[in-house]
Fold these 2 entries.
Entry 1:
Amino acid sequence: SIQACLFDLDGVIVDTAQFHYIAWREMAQDLGFDLTREENERLKGISRMESLEIVLSIGGVELSEEEKARRAAAKNTRYLELCMQMTPDDALPGVRRFLDELKANNISTGLGSASKNAQVILERIDMLHYFDTIVDGNRITKGKPDPQVFLMGAADLNVPPAQCAVFEDAVAGIESAKAAGMLAVGIGEASVLTQADIVIPGFENFGLPQLENI
Ligand code: UVW
């Protein structure tokens, strides 16, 4: 049975994709091109520097390494400024209740995110205390779809991968969970998250009994 649950942050705990989109779009416009919402989808679960490379390739823009570093830092400053508007009410529906249920049943919890901002965002929505371990962009050397992020989380919690469930909204994240040998619960649409063991629209009608039934 499942002994640990590992959660992606962006799109699973909180919807920060909208802020990434605003901040990348402003950078793109400053460089003379636009970024669509659909193009922004490609950035989900992807690290900051890889996201920058994708955005620049969309615009056909080439920058020096120095300018890339400057642009990425400026984007992050803007992104964090937008994130600071969030309150604890911005946690996605049902996720706090589900985490309470896990705690009450002694199931370990971990965060597995490519973001270097994971801790500050969890603090902002007052949810840092829910996680027994945080594996974020400051710790990993290989991004999703590599399994490293979730294997580190399982090792921190001392739980074998086969007894871990991963909650993910990104295709790369589901791939990462499956490569780690874990149960993958997709948050979103089954037509997109085809490798997931089950796909749910969100946590509103999901609890431990549903998890144990998969
Ligand atoms: C991601 O968006 C994944 O990374 P960061 O928050 O570090 O820019």
Entry 2:
Amino acid sequence: MNIHTRADAPTGLSAQEEFLNELFDKGVLFDSGVDGLYGRSGAFEDVIKAFDRLVTRHGKHDAATSIHFPPGIARPLFEKSGYMKSFPQLAGTVHSFMGGDADHCTLLAELEAGQDWTGQQQATDIVLTPAACYPLYPTVAKRGPLPPEGRLYDLQSYCFRHEPSKDPARMQMFRMREYVRIGSPEQVRAFRETWLERGQTMMASLGVPLKVDVANDPFFGRAGRMLANNQRDTGLKFELLIPVTSEEKPTACLSFNYHQDHFGSLWNIPTADGGVAHTACVGFGMERVALALFKHHGCETAQWPEAVRQVLWP
Ligand code: ATP
Ligand code: ZN
Ligand code: MG
């Protein structure tokens, strides 16, 4: 989509804000008043559904077990996952009112007075899922040792990350599809290699410019910087990047993560031969892929290049 410059456009808007405004103007996304929280048009959802089927077609020979988790994870599992050590800035917890009549009166009075009323709420047993694969590891651990061939899962979940932004590609609530491989180091590394290739072939078929680069997660704080450097140096995370609002800083649309035995030892997942399971996941940012397509092919999907339409709607 060409970024149109309207005569009345306020000056000084970032390219991200311009694209976001254009998506609002053209009815692709709907503003909620909160950055990163948007409604989606039917056309946008049709693209997401079509891309979802495309991923399935590329992964179909691997016989994955599909699990649909809700967008919340049990708080005890979240606590054990170590997420608050690494990414406290992104987490979102679900709170609810659990008081009696008097507390309710206080809450209503605070609301009425425009004061902070959320102190009347308490943490529930649910935390918003930060990445589609987080609920999987404790689920797999319950099944005992892996079979010799390991396991492969196909997941999709809405995820929450508290990273409000004017960048339409950085949402607070978005969908992540993931394939997760659990097995020996060789099985898991082979899976990631396969998807690094497949991911590029698949995205190239959608007519978007792309590159793959080494990456790191936004580990929190000073200690986090070391973790991030180590992740890069050891090549544990790669991203497939597509320019959406910037050529210099393209957007991570797919990511390929090798966790080594981190989750296998944390959750106690043994391999068939008594070792510790290794894990890897490939994550597809559903909204990001859709936005990349709207950016490069325009906001009228009926006018997208025929070759691209054939891939999405064969
Ligand atoms: P970034 O570096 O841009 O923050 P990330 O490294 O945090 O991305 P992952 O944690 O690997 O991303 O998440 C898997 C996929 O989910 C990403 O490849 C991306 O496509 C998508 N994703 C991540 N964060 C967001 C977000 N805030 N909004 C929309 N999609 C996202
Ligand atoms: Zn994952
Ligand atoms: Mg991120």
